[in-house]
Amino acid sequence: MKPRVPSGGALLVLMSATLWGISGYMVHFLVLYGLSPVQVVYYANGIGAILFVIGLAPWGGRYLAAPWRALPGLLALGVIGGGMSFLLFTSGIALIGVSLTTLLTSTHPTWTTLLAWRFLGEPVDRRRLMAIAAALIGSALVARVDDPGALQANLIGLLFGLGSGVTYAIYNVLGKHVLAGSHPLTVTFYMLTGSALALLAFQPAPLPIGIAPQAVPWLVAFIAAEVVVGPVLYNVGLRVMSAGSVSVIATWELVVGVCLGVLALGEPLDLPQAGGALLVAGSVFILSLTTSHHEAAAAPGEPVAVPVVARC
What we know:
This protein is an all-alpha fold. Helices cover 75% and strands 0% of the residues.
């Protein structure tokens, strides 16, 4: 009998994917109004951590406290996911735009599958191999390997986008185990704190003083969508649904991000790149769907690599 997917949990995951898809659009305007990618990530995570402290203060002993033995894993997860992957994502947007960065970051299921095969012993069947090949070919088309001039001109930004996907995959493999032993609110708080501390030394000021007034509403909206509301909705959905089902629904983020970049910001996407985008999107969906089937057949306790806690 096919397992039932809780409709409430599915709606929460869909809402979080929509918010994360919009977040790249917000980064575009934050960079436009003078913030560097490092500042965007630091302010978002640092202010997000402060908001969590205020909001969870009445239940501090339950959600803000963590065992000493769990702290290294929680903080490391923050440095990798909320720090490195997030920073590479925002840096890619600053250089090559929302749509291309979103597409390249969305290859993370490919890298997650390969890492899970290598380190978790998860099998890679023919369907997964085909999806991985589609993602790699699609990424090459998106990067314009057919045009050496365009490839060279955008190389750094393309590497940032791919790097965001790879570091996010590392975060996916580690994150499921961390979430298994801690409450989603606790994991999110320490993620934000770890990444903010890691980036503090690179900031001209610890608080966002002196930023352009036009950037303030975008920063507020970005923090709400990316690091506060989005992760909580996602993690609550993950708690009540199968991880594979969550992965499939979360592919909606890719559609939202690319459509906003192309339609709202007017970013170019020529025919080969559009074909590559379809290959990447198809690969993400197939790998997520395969994760769902694998999870349903897995023995109790068998690890399955899925994205948790936050998108970047």
